[in-house]
Design brief:
With about 400 residues, the protein is of the alpha+beta class. It folds into 4 domains: about 90 residues, conserved putative lor/sdh protein from methanococcus maripaludis s2 fold; about 110 residues, Efflux pump adaptor protein, beta barrel domain (Elongation Factor Tu (Ef-tu), domain 3, Beta Barrel); about 55 residues, OB fold (Dihydrolipoamide Acetyltransferase, E2P) (Beta Barrel); about 70 residues, Helix Hairpins, CATH 1.10.287. Helices cover about 30% and strands about 35% of the residues. The protein contains 5 helices and 20 strands. Strand 16 and strand 17 form a beta hairpin. The radius of gyration is 44 Å and the shape is elongated.
């Protein structure tokens, strides 16, 4: 009696299960299609050209404009120190006094030797004159006259030798006053009163450094220099003042040096181990703010590029092989990955020399989640907002 009823119920449940399964599979397909066609919201920056002042940021060290190590040129005992450590000394100023007694005696001896040589010269000159007078009357031989002439010339040479010896002794006496070879700040004294010094000893008595102006030595990649030179020659970069390159420096994040320096020269050789080239700038230093050995951050003004494509550095992706690329949005709102060439850095931005054109839409956020062909919904931002997203 119940068999037909159970049969009807079984058929109903079977149909219900099939419907449920079909509905479930249909829902999964719809979710997959929806996920596949998911549209991302991205911020885009419209690429444009602008006038950009190009500045290279380099690390540098301050060095003295002139540096002289003070060493004695004669030996002896230091009697006096005639300067205050750390003070400004002038060229020719007496710094140390070496005991002069020995050198004064040498001068006195040289003067006496010169006097004796002059007396002998006078005697020889008189003898030569007498024999010349007697030669006409044949009272003396020609040989005697020639001997007198030779004695005179020898005595005259002896006088010159004694003059040179006296000059040498006087010079050595003057060297007992150790003078400043340049004008500048003098450091600590390495010798004290009573110390024994020797001529041209390896350890200096003190060091003098001229600190106004000063040098700032920087290093830069030789490849960067070649690239900048090529862009200058091609006319992409124009100099504000041809032949003059201005440089500014910062002592740290909060202290910028107020005075501007000038790039003096770039070294003519490349360091083989690093591939770097030395650059040297000259800075005025009237207040003595810049001290030798001080680390600074230098900003070298390279020129102006009239039509540069400037984009935030955070938009540029770099591969393991060093290739650089960006994401742009095409006319169909699809993502394209574009290989670009970075020419220069300018603060937190970079200048793109190849791969981007004016008017294209550059994606500035969510770069790691994007891939080629993704559909996106764009939201334009201005350059200031793009920097904030960095």
């Amino acid at each position: 009696m119940f068999s037909p009823i159970f049969s009807i119920i079984g058929r109903f449940l079977a149909c219900f299960g099939v419907c449920l399964l079909v509905s479930s599979l249909s829902g999964c397909d719809q979710q997959q299609v929806k996920a596949h066609k998911k549209i991302r919201d991205v911020s885009v920056l419209k690429v444009r050209t602008e006038k950009v002042s190009l500045t290279a940021e380099l690390s540098g060290r301050v060095s003295a404009f002139r540096k002289a190590e003070v060493r004695p040129q004669v030996g002896g005992i230091l009697q006096k120190q005639l300067f205050s450590e750390g003070s400004l000394v002038r060229e020719g100023q007496s710094l140390y006094k070496i005991d002069p007694a020995t050198y004064e005696a040498e001068v006195a001896s040289a003067k006496a030797a010169l006097a004796r040589a002059r007396a002998v010269l006078t005697q020889c000159e008189l003898r030569r004159s007498r024999r010349r007078a007697l030669l006409s009357s044949h009272a003396v031989s020609q040989q005697a006259v020639e001997d007198a002439e030779a004695e005179y010339l020898q005595a005259k040479a002896d006088v010159e030798v004694c003059k040179a010896a006296l000059l040498t002794a006087e010079i050595r006496l003057r060297y007992t006053d150790v003078l400043a070879p340049i004008t500048g700040r003098i450091g600590k004294s390495h010798m004290t009163q009573g110390a024994l010094v020797t001529a041209n000893q390896p350890e200096p008595l003190a060091v003098i450094q001229q600190l106004d102006p000063v040098y700032v030595d920087m290093t830069r990649s030789s490849l960067d220099l070649l690239r900048v030179r090529d862009r200058n020659l091609s006319g992409q970069i124009k100099q504000d003042k041809p032949g003059q390159t201005s440089v500014r420096i910062a002592l740290d994040d909060s202290h910028t040096y107020p005075l501007e320096g000038k790039l003096q020269f770039a070294d003519i050789s490349v360091d083989e181990s690093t591939g770097m080239v030395l650059l040297r700038a000259v800075f005025p230093n009237p207040q003595g703010t810049l001290l030798p050995g001080l680390y600074v951050q230098a900003f070298v003004h390279e020129g102006v590029e009239e039509k540069a494509i400037l984009v935030p550095e955070s938009c540029v992706l770099r591969s393991a092989r060093g290739q650089t690329s960006v994401f742009v949005v095409d006319a169909e709102n699809k993502v394209n990955q574009r290989t670009v060439r970075v020419a220069e850095r300018s603060g937190h931005n970079v200048i793109i020399s190849e791969g981007l054109s004016e008017g294209e839409l550059l994606i500035v956020d969510g770069l790691r989640q994007l891939k080629e062909g993704d559909l996106v919904q764009t939201h334009p931002v201005n350059p200031g907002q793009a920097m904030k997203k960095r």
